[in-house]
Amino acid sequence: MPRLTDARKELRRSQIAEAAVRCFSRNGLERTSIADITAESGLSAGSIYAHYRNKADLVRAAAREVLVKRADVLGEYAAADAPPDPDELLSRLIAAIDPAEARVGVQTWGEATTDPAVRDIVVDMTDRMRAMLHDCVTAWLVKVERQEPARARELATPIAHRVMALYQAELLYTALRSATEGTAS
Amino acid sequence: MPRLTDARKELRRSQIAEAAVRCFSRNGLERTSIADITAESGLSAGSIYAHYRNKADLVRAAAREVLVKRADVLGEYAAADAPPDPDELLSRLIAAIDPAEARVGVQTWGEATTDPAVRDIVVDMTDRMRAMLHDCVTAWLVKVERQEPARARELATPIAHRVMALYQAELLYTALRSATEGTAS
DNA sequence: TCACAAACAGAACCGTGATTCTGCTAGCGT
DNA sequence: ACGCTAGCAGAATCACGGTTCTGTTTGTGA
């Protein structure tokens, strides 16, 4: 095999990362061994190390994977032309939470406490999501509350902050609720 | 040494648990070895195992330690006879957050995702704190907002829920903010 | 189609770290 | 004051798991 085409290579990487996320959601970041990921992905240890420098690197990729997916969900609302009010926005976000990903997300927070690279990923994605939320809320203020754009942006900041906080708390509750009991899904 | 008096025994246990918390706040739950705790506490491995069944048991004790301390802070407000309004309550709680304990708290959440015993501790303490918050808010509604007790209790529920969520989110932000940079304190 | 280097499987290696074991020591009941 | 036994220190053990190494295979560019 010569160097894989970029598309194929990316496919393998995400195949590994997705298997890792599944393992992590079951057993946590530190309790899943490379052997577990090997079994889950169907690939071998050697292969994994051809795509990721080491386990920490893989953890970071998994963190990015989960967070990006969450941000994407939000991105769709940001582009909507009928912006929902903050309460509605929040409950839609909450409805879109997947328990398994919530668990990995919360684990990621814990890891961010220790690993600077993961911390940067978490902070970056959080900021990005909050910015999107800010856009959503601003759009709502302008379109349905008839605020002037400048004033709306200003008012939106604390609201976006609150929505984000409530969303993250709900993420935590979902993770805790689904731990132990729900091995499926 | 015969069996230590209960007070002394409890003292040793908390000496170990506190050292563990300090280690955890620096390096995370899984990256601190028994040797680290040995060094931090000044005790030996053998001694630690005389007081805790194993590392998981110690982690649970540390989790309980941190959460109970947090709940105690709140407990004082609950007993206050001049109950603050929810915003004030929240900002006082936030002001009382210690970065090191915030980090361990967040790590604990991640662990709760995987370890049922830790999960139970976290859920239990969260519920307890929310109940206290509920009492605080109810007292405020009765005393300064002049609501009838029954109605106040009803109104307090969603408010307490929100305050708790916002508090937890702030805990997360503090943990993330203080990670990496602040090795001191 | 061919050849070569990258991707891959799987075993081997090796360090790390939890736990246990062996004595020694010191606090508490008497 | 004395002795017994639980605390305790510190070394030894032992398994686990991350990483690397050795071939083998296979996809891709020419």
TrEMBL record, chains A, B:
Pfam families: TetR_N (PF00440). This is TetR family transcriptional regulator. Signal peptide: none annotated. Residues 33-52 bind DNA. Residues 10-70 form the HTH tetR-type domain. Keywords: DNA-binding, Transcription, Transcription regulation. It comes from the Bacteria. InterPro entries: Homeodomain-like_sf, HTH-type_TetR-like_transc_reg, HTH_TetR, Tet_transcr_reg_TetR-rel_C_sf.
